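Treating backbone geometry as a discrete language has practical consequences that deserve illustration. In the encoding step, the backbone of a single protein was reduced to a row of integers, each denoting a local shape. The amino acid sequence and the backbone structure tokens for this protein are reproduced below.
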Amino acid sequence: MSDFAERPRLERWLPLGDRADCCEPDPLIRARALTLRYGAELAFEDVTLDVHRGCVTALVGPSGCGKTSFLGCINRLVDLTPSARVSGGLALGEVDLLAPGLDVTALRRRVGMVFQRPNPFPLSIRRNLDLPLREHGMRSRSERADVAEQALRDVGLWDEVCDRLDSPAMALSGGQQQRLCIARALALDPEVLLMDEPCSALDPLAGEIIEDLIARLRGRVTLLIVTHNLAQARRVADWAALFWRQGEAGQLIEFGAVQQIFDAPEQELTAAYVRGRRG
């Protein structure tokens, strides 16, 4: 039996406090002088950044400055690109994420990923949740069904789909598909959830539902979100990091509490970007 099947599951929907209650500095992910190259091209270089436990951290900045690539280092998706070379330090708790012998399958259970465009499996709604649970060692059909139901309830989707679980997931609306993808990630009880522009392909109402879900996950999961929507970053995040392309590589320009980044940035470039004068 896998260690996933033996792990105690998190209690769902504990009462959560406000941002100050949940999001005191407590580094869970630590990047130190992290640099990523694709062949001879630098995606980003020399990024030193702490992602705090239980908080929502937004990565903002123009396209092409390494934000999505930074996410790909955390769950080792960059491994799928043969030319990718990562140097520096990157840790999740006490785990060295750059270690050559790292169990990447186990890592991706701990670090879930939600992409810009919804990507449900071309299967039924039920099987979208059942399949990853089986792959990660949950043998009991009844337990898988219970976990799937709870995950769908967590994202507010259960009442909308409970009478059609065997219908194709691809028949859902875009917003429903994105919530299904989030439920699929949450079903594995990740410690970290990476979200790459999770609302950009959705209509405003569906995006608002996703933002509300992000807020409710605060304190239960550590969330790292790439967004080009500065208003969204200000609404949902506790911490914010501005990435920018300087010369040939993306760089981290400034990191801090979201209120400080938007109201009292230390760097002129940050001030120009959040006030709409750059980017």
